[in-house]
Amino acid sequence: MMTKQIHLWAFLQGIGFYPTGWKHPRARPEGVFSMDYYRSVAKLVEKGRFDAIVFGDQLQSRGAGGRTPERMAMPTLDPVSLLTAMSAVTEHVGLVATISTTYNTPEMLAERFAAMERITGGRSGWNIVTSAHPDTAPNFGEAELPPKDTRYSHAAEVVDKACELWAAMDRAGPRLPQGRPVLVQAGQSPAGRDFAARTAEAIFCPAASIEAGIDFRNDLRSRIAGLGRNPDGTRIMPGLSCVLGGSEEEAKANHKAIMDLADVALAIEYLSESLCCDLTPFDPEAPLPVAAIIANTLLPKSDVERMVASAAEKGTSLRDYAMNFMLHPRGHNVFIGTPEQMADMMISWRDAGACDGFTLQPSYMPGGLEDFVGEVVPILQKKGRYRTEYPGNSLRETLGLPAFARADA
Amino acid sequence: MTRPFILSAAIADPQLAVPATAAAWLDAAEAAGLDLLHFGEAGARPFDAQVLVAWAAPLTKRVGLVACVPASNAHPFHVARALSAVDFLCSGRTAWSVVPEGASEGMAEDMIGAARALWDGWGSDTLILDKTGGRYLDAAKVKASNYEGPFFKVAGPVNAMRPLVGQPLLVTYEAAPLAITDADIALVASPQKAAGATKTLLKITFETPLEEIAQHFAEGVIDGVHLSLTDPLAELPALAQRFAALVAANPGGAGNLRERLGLPLPATASNQPDGAKIPEIA
Ligand SMILES: Cc1cc2nc3c(=O)[nH]c(=O)nc-3n(C[C@H](O)[C@H](O)[C@H](O)COP(=O)(O)O)c2cc1C
């Protein structure tokens, strides 16, 4: 029996996984505004034989109504533009763009992806999101984000309509090489998981531990099978960040160096963004201002109450809460250790059925990606668990998915 | 600076979305010394030009990339973000046009107003990138756009540095008129200086007499010519050859499209005279 192969995606939005990442000596925050940076990064990802490059996306303006964070580097350039430009300087790597179904019409996004699919020669993917940030609505003339259930039911209609449009565009020519982009989703709630089970050919998710990964993958696979789809037709790709070192001690020291780049002001800005509530006016040494947070947050209050419950009980200071919060961005697994240990960990997750592969989130860019491609990829390849060449040209082939069945074929 | 003679052409063939064909056409456009390549134009828009200009960005060095955007099937927030990213990817060679076909009256103008307001959200010197001091940007130089027009209401701004060209160059078509008085470039069918644009390009065919074109240019009536291509690989070299004498005095090199074509940065509160700056990191 062939050993289970590992799939890898590179999540490259921003300047790395850690809010402090942009300040690292090997980070290039100026690079995200230049083609040279995207050219070298795209070639590096392709050298590392990744399936795809993924860019997340957010449509809210930072600080539209209130205070713009000054210490966080969160440039959100249009992912379709960045990925399409990267496709022009590569041959194989897939390009997965995040586009919201809430703030694009099916006609708009179908036209965008048709162009992207054609000009990339069949390497496009769509990370289908519904936009979750309440500040998004005012950029589209609306006061409020629709509730989640409404967003997901609308998303299903948008996807169906877009698929119809692609079928017509494909027939009209030039052909869409894959028939349509590969459909990717990232949702956590039951509604999100059902939507993924119905739609997705690949899923991007957080999984902080191997157990969480196994639970998530089993749950999704049974939802997919329950809908009569083949669970092997969907790749499950939890996020994974890492800090490497020649020894465990060195890796820990490298991790500490990233953490030491944090200052309290940055940590409080990051927490403010995450809780959708400006905490910069509060005394960092005083207990986390829980009542003010609940009163002012733009997120669903019950979600935020759950997040801050234990800090409220213990009276944790704003400083300590914010500094600790920054250690675990977005709930993804973070590996700290040697390249050999990392490869073993990845193989153990794959063998345990915790994932089909990983969405690598370099801790800072491009240094974190250089380390992974230079040090971990060759080990996975030597162990026979990771490709040394691409199997074909389209993203579907790279993902090992069956060809898309055209209705008119 | 001598006034450049601007060479402009449009491709509206669906094959521009097919990489092998597109690559050959882009090479031909560069070899011809074309100043502006329009991806689609009024009445002929068989692809999403915003995507194709991103692809063209790393494959070209000099030609200005004009994305033809439909007012009927786009939103200014998305357009502003897409073209601001493209402008960085091509080092300041982005232009756009908005075609009103199929859209309500006034929607194209509204899209232009909204996108311009979004581009003006960040000042030319908003980025700081001070790793040691920990300041990424100067929040005092970020402004909400709060644009409100008849169709689009957009809070803004876009979360990224303003485009290198300040705002992408706006191209208008006499054939698809807009109520815009401050476009950068207008394409006209008869030799007459356009009222609503800084530069006027005459739409020509290979039959248009060269002496007449040269005279209109010398008299300042037009600033160059525009041709709609049907066979780019044959027509682009022919275009270059036909206008070789007129473009001979143009400033050479690549560089920011506004500078090269003699088009000033839009004077807005957030636009500094020497344009957007990305700080260098030692
Ligand atoms: C790993 C992960 C990545 C996501 N990335 C984005 C993103 O880039 N942009 C976005 O608007 N939403 C993103 N989302 C949000 C989801 O699309 C979804 O709207 C949100 O998670 C709320 O739905 P849920 O409760 O089902 O998860 C992401 C979600 C997850 C779990």
Summarize the structure.
The complex is a heterodimer of chains A (409) and B (282). Chain A is an alpha/beta fold and 409 residues long.
Structural summary, described in words:
The complex is a heterodimer of chains A (409) and B (282). Chain A has 409 residues and is an alpha/beta fold. Chain A has helices spanning 35-47, 79-87, 106-119, 148-172, 190-199, 210-226, 248-260, 264-275, 290-296, 301-314, 318-325, 339-351, 367-382, 395-399, and strands at residues 7-11, 52-55, 94-100, 124-129, 182-185, 202-205, 235-244, 333-337, 357-360. Chain A has 2 domains: 7-249 and 333-399, TIM Barrel (Alpha-Beta Barrel), CATH 3.20.20; 263-325, no CATH class. In chain A, β2 (52-55), α2 and β3 (94-100) form a beta-alpha-beta unit. The longest helix of chain A has 25 residues, at 148-172. Chain B has helices at residues 19-31, 49-56, 76-89, 107-119, 210-218, 232-242, 244-247, 257-261; strands spanning 6-11, 36-39, 64-70, 94-99, 127-130, 135-137, 147-148, 153-154, 169-173, 183-188, 197-203, 224-229. In chain B, α1 packs parallel to α6 (232-242), α2 runs parallel beside α3 (76-89) and α3 packs across α4 (107-119). The longest helix of chain B is centred in the N-terminal third of the chain and has 14 residues, at 76-89. Chain B is globular and about 60 Å long. Chain B starts with 5 loop residues before the first strand and ends in a 21-residue tail after the last helix. Chains A and B meet through α1, α2 and α3 of A and α2, α3, β6 and β8 of B. Flavin mononucleotide is lined by residues 56-58, 98, 100, 129-132, 148, 186-189, 191-192, 204-206, 239 of chain A.
Oligomer: heterodimer
| SSE string of chain B, helices as H and strands as E | EHEHEHEHEEEEEEEHEHHH
Q: What proportion of the residues of chain A is helical, as a percent range?
A: 40-55%
Q: What would CATH call the class of chain B?
A: Alpha Beta
Please give a handful of descriptors for the protein shown:
heterodimer; A: 409 residues; alpha/beta; TIM Barrel; 9 strands; B: 282 residues; eight-stranded parallel barrel; 8 helices; 27% helix; binds flavin mononucleotide
